[in-house]
């Protein structure tokens, strides 16, 4: 069963207007969407996006017969195009949970997790061409190093890439368990952390690269100024530092009145503050939630409100 994270905190900080229009950028298992929907009146509206075909099928079943809910298969990077298609100019609020759903993690056919051995796929949208198999078995060593460093912040990127290249010469690496084993052997034993598989960062890196996850988040953040109405709120839940840094930096930028260099005697940039920060520091799960759902441990929530 999928367990959405920080659900109570999301509902509280989204400050839902029962008559408003809200966008769930990452529908997943529908946990957040169901809670938000319950806060809406009959003239409120919820648009649910997900790029994963399986998730969209599941969401359409959950919300079958709900007249004021639209479920759309789309990358949230294209949220503006979806709204244009639905003839919606402005929305009251928007939220996104950037983590993988339990459905994706537990389905070995999707190839996201080393906990269940499956084909190296890792695509969120199965119509995309590049799979993890393609990256692991065909990309040059230097490219692999760059991927592991940039998207996984993996300190042993060189050793891991070297091991992958040597292994694939003998036999193609086809499954998640094979890749996890190669990575585990490449990371020195003294750096194997208790409770964390040595392959965690590398799997994250390959997944982010294949799905262009950071580019999608950046695109979404660049569009919220235009699509969210005054008084509307945005809520973002991140699971690693790369995501959280993007969200933090962009929300801080929107919350500034001036971005001129400090040595300028007066403002010349004419920048206007468009959002105010509701959370100066990220909201994190309570210990009780972490006990119920250990995967929530790394979640961080940031919230901002449109002011113009």
Automatic annotation (TrEMBL):
It is found in: Cytoplasm. The keyword Transferase applies. S-adenosyl-L-methionine binds at residues 30-32, 50, 76, 97, 104. It is an enzyme of class 2 (transferase). One of its GO terms (biological process) is rRNA base methylation. It catalyses: cytidine(1402) in 16S rRNA + S-adenosyl-L-methionine = N(4)-methylcytidine(1402) in 16S rRNA + S-adenosyl-L-homocysteine + H(+). Its EC number is 2.1.1.199. Signal peptide: none annotated. NCBIfam families: 16S rRNA (cytosine(1402)-N(4))-methyltransferase RsmH. This is Ribosomal RNA small subunit methyltransferase H.
């Amino acid at each position: 069963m999928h367990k959405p994270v920080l659900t109570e905190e999301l509902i509280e900080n989204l400050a839902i207007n029962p008559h408003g229009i809200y966008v769930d950028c990452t529908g997943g298992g529908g946990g957040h969407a169901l809670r938000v929907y319950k806060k809406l009146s009959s003239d409120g509206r919820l648009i649910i996006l997900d790029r994963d075909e399986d998730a969209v099928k599941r969401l359409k079943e959950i919300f079958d017969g709900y007249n004021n809910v639209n479920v759309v298969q789309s990358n949230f990077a294209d949220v503006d195009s979806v709204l244009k298609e639905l003839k919606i100019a402005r929305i009251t609020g928007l939220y996104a949970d950037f983590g993988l759903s339990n459905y994706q993690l537990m389905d070995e056919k999707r190839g996201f997790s080393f906990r269940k051995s499956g084909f190296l796929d890792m695509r969120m949208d199965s119509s995309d061409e590049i799979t993890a198999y393609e990256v692991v078995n065909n990309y040059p060593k230097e490219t692999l190093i760059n991927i592991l460093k940039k998207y996984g912040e993996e300190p042993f990127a060189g050793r891991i890439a070297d091991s992958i290249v040597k292994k694939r010469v003998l036999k193609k690496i086809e499954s998640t368990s094979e890749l996890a084993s190669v990575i585990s052997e490449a990371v020195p034993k003294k750096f194997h952390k208790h409770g964390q598989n040595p392959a965690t960062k590398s799997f994250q890196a390959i997944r982010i690269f294949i799905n262009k996850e950071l580019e999608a988040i950046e695109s979404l953040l660049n569009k919220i100024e235009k699509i969210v109405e005054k008084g509307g709120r945005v809520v973002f839940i991140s699971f690693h530092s790369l995501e959280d840094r993007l969200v933090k930096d962009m929300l801080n930028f929107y919350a500034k009145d001036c971005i001129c260099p400090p040595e300028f005697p007066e403002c010349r940039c004419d920048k206007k503050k468009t959002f105010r920060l509701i959370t100066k520091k990220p909201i994190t799960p309570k210990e009780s939630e972490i006990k119920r759902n250990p995967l929530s441990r790394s979640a961080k929530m940031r919230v901002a409100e449109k002011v113009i």
